Amino acid sequence: MITRAGTIVDASIVEVPRQRNSREENRLIMAGQRPEAWQTNPDKLWQKDVDARWTKKNLENHSGYKNHGRADADSALITDHVVTPASVHDSQELATLIGPPQAGENLFADSADASAATDRTLAELGINNYVHEKGARNRPLTETKKGLNQVKSQVRCLVEHVFGCV
After folding, report:
1. pTM listed for this prediction
2. CB–CB of 76/158 below 8 Å?
3. Distance CA 94, CA 82 (A)
4. Over the stretch 79-107, which tens digit does the pLDDT of each residue have?
């Protein structure tokens, strides 16, 4: 049952087997073309994932895709999702996942979605902003904001279980 009491948005990397391509093959793939050797050997083409991209997270390289999901805050049921190459930042798909149907709801998201643009968008849509606060160099979070993030995490952790199952 979807209660529409709130929405949780998050993203997770889905790794794929690493491609062992030459620099020339990678250049052609990034240009949207296929290497000539792959065209003559369909078996090789079937084994290559040309849409996956690289990203770095916690100083580790990952190749694959990113699942961006929206879930109901009470039931943790997935209500929408988008799949992108891993190189797309989490915040880039927020506008795709939320809209006027979520007006009046609470939005819970991690600090990757925190920005002035997100704040404006949520205010325009009439969505209550419960996005995690994030600190910056020489401007750490106050104890109050840390406490608020902990309260937000109690709701937001439900979506982590969803991604864990996936």
Report:
1. 0.82
2. yes
3. 10
4. 899 999 999 998 999 989 998 988 889 99
